[in-house]
């Protein structure tokens, strides 16, 4: 019976891809595909009930690649991840569900339960209290850990007060929490002309490549793939507006390979670059297009270095190919930062 369910879901996925190739991104096609995805949700719930969490997760990841928000799809992804012992990833999947469907009572209840169970970890206290104040506001909008957010805050504040001169750039925005944090620092400590460019598709990650693994497991097997980490542009605007700093942010929507070559002339010199592209190719796209514009003494923070093998590989391939002497500072075992010499 379970194998029959998997077969039915595969058939629906094929029908959706065929419809997309024939009808394109028309409103009617999107509506029909959403109907197919709703059917897939029902089948995947049946798989969970039979204990086939891994098979369910793989089918949900394929459904996410359509980049269409469908209620309960990320809730099911979270439940599969929980059954596979990946509670932190389940929390992020629930947040993704609630970005698009904030009234999903089941997702809200499960997220509250997991949050209460999770360890808070070591408390990081800022002498002025400013970081704690900002962190409380941006936390619902970000998947970036507290220590990495503090590093972003520290680098941004230091650039505002001490230089070097240049703009701020974030590649990989998701729900907008780290962009909102930077924008708030610019408002409070920067010049009135300070600017943050926030690059993202605003409908999820591109598909991962062969290099994109964690612990030898491919990203899709781990529950992350094309269309995950999705949040609408409105989420970024809400996050920055909640801190009264929306005017400091310029969102740029699209894939890095398209937007970065087009915008690098507009951006100019970069004082702080936050790289949160996850995948090997995305990381290379950022470095290839923007590294030369980072000014001497400028800060570069790489969010996924210690987690995704492809991200780490891309950074070292780029720097070794350019004979760049890289002095990395670890943040929390996942993120790293360095200054351009």
UniProtKB/TrEMBL annotation:
<dbReference type="InterPro" id="IPR029063">
    <property type="entry name" value="SAM-dependent_MTases_sf"/>
</dbReference>
<protein>
    <submittedName>
        <fullName>Macrocin-O-methyltransferase</fullName>
    </submittedName>
</protein>
<dbReference type="GO" id="GO:0008168">
    <property type="term" value="F:methyltransferase activity"/>
</dbReference>
<dbReference type="InterPro" id="IPR008884">
    <property type="entry name" value="TylF_MeTrfase"/>
</dbReference>
<keyword id="KW-0489">Methyltransferase</keyword>
<keyword id="KW-0808">Transferase</keyword>
<dbReference type="Pfam" id="PF05711">
    <property type="entry name" value="TylF"/>
</dbReference>
<dbReference type="GO" id="GO:0032259">
    <property type="term" value="P:methylation"/>
</dbReference>
């Amino acid at each position: 019976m379970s194998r029959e369910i998997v077969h039915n879901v595969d058939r629906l996925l094929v029908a959706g891809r065929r419809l997309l190739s024939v009808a394109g991104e028309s409103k009617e096609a999107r509506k029909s595909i959403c109907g197919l995805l709703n059917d897939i949700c029902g089948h995947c719930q049946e798989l969970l009930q039979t204990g086939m969490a891994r098979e369910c997760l793989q089918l949900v990841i394929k459904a996410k690649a359509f980049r269409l928000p469908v209620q309960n799809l990320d809730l099911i992804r979270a439940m599969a991840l929980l059954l596979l012992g990946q509670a932190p990833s389940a929390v992020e999947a629930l947040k993704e569900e609630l970005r698009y469907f904030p009234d999903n009572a089941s997702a809200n209840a499960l997220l509250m339960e997991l949050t209460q169970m999770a360890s808070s970890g070591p408390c990081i206290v800022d002498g002025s209290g400013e970081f704690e104040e900002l962190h409380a506001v941006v936390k619902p909008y970000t998947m970036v850990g507290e220590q990495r957010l503090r590093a972003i805050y520290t680098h941004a504040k230091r650039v505002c007060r001490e230089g070097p001169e240049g703009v701020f750039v974030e590649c990989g925005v998701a729900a907008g929490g780290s962009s909102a944090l930077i924008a708030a620092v610019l408002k409070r400590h920067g010049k009135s002309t300070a600017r943050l460019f926030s690059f993202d598709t605003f409908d999820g990650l591109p598909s991962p490549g062969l290099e994109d693994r964690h612990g030898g497991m491919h990203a899709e097997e781990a529950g992350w793939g094309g269309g995950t980490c999705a949040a609408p542009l409105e989420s970024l605007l809400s996050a920055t507006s909640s801190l009264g700093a929306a005017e400091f942010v310029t969102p740029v929507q699209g894939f890095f390979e398209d937007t970065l070559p087009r915008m690098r002339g507009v951006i100019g010199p970069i004082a702080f670059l936050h790289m949160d592209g996850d995948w090997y190719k995305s990381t290379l796209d950022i470095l290839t297009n923007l590294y030369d514009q980072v000014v001497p003494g400028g800060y570069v923070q790489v969010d996924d270095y210690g987690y995704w093998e492809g991200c780490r590989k891309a950074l070292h391939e780029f720097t070794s190919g350019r004979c760049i002497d890289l002095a990395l500072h670890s943040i929390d075992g996942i993120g790293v930062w360095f200054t351009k010499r």
